[in-house]
């Protein structure tokens, strides 16, 4: 016969932990350091936009270019491999 203990789930064990004064301080410090590093990286002079960038010239948009046979349907390949061998 089936074991009834396997059918019944045991309640999860919950640990009663005392609140710690240092809880989350290390992750908060790491997050703050990461934010500072991120701001330092993205705040570099090289990444800032120049108000007057004389060297940059915007390229003209050529529009969409299509091949002359774009509207034509492609021929469907034969799915019969024996025909391919005999044609060769």
Automatic annotation (TrEMBL):
Write out the ranges of the annotated region (Disordered): 1-21, 44-88
Q: Name one Pfam family in it.
A: YL1
InterPro entries, A to Z: YL1_N
Q: Which domain of life is it from?
A: Eukaryota
- Any one Gene Ontology cellular component term annotated for this protein: nucleus
Task: State where composition is biased (Acidic residues).
Answer: 1-11, 48-82
Residue ranges of every copy of the Vps72/YL1 N-terminal domain listed in the record: 17-85
Q: Which PANTHER family match?
A: VACUOLAR PROTEIN SORTING-ASSOCIATED PROTEIN 72 HOMOLOG, YL-1 PROTEIN TRANSCRIPTION FACTOR-LIKE 1
Name of protein: Vps72/YL1 N-terminal domain-containing protein
Please name the source species.
Aegilops tauschii subsp. strangulata
């Amino acid at each position: 016969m089936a074991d009834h203990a396997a059918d019944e789930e045991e309640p999860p064990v919950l640990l009663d932990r005392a609140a710690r004064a240092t809880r989350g301080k290390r992750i908060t410090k790491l997050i703050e350091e990461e934010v500072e590093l991120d701001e330092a990286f993205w705040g570099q002079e090289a990444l800032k936009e120049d108000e007057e960038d004389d060297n940059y010239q915007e390229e003209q948009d050529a529009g969409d270019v299509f091949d002359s046979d774009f509207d034509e349907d492609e021929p469907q390949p034969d799915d019969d491999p024996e025909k391919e061998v005999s044609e060769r």
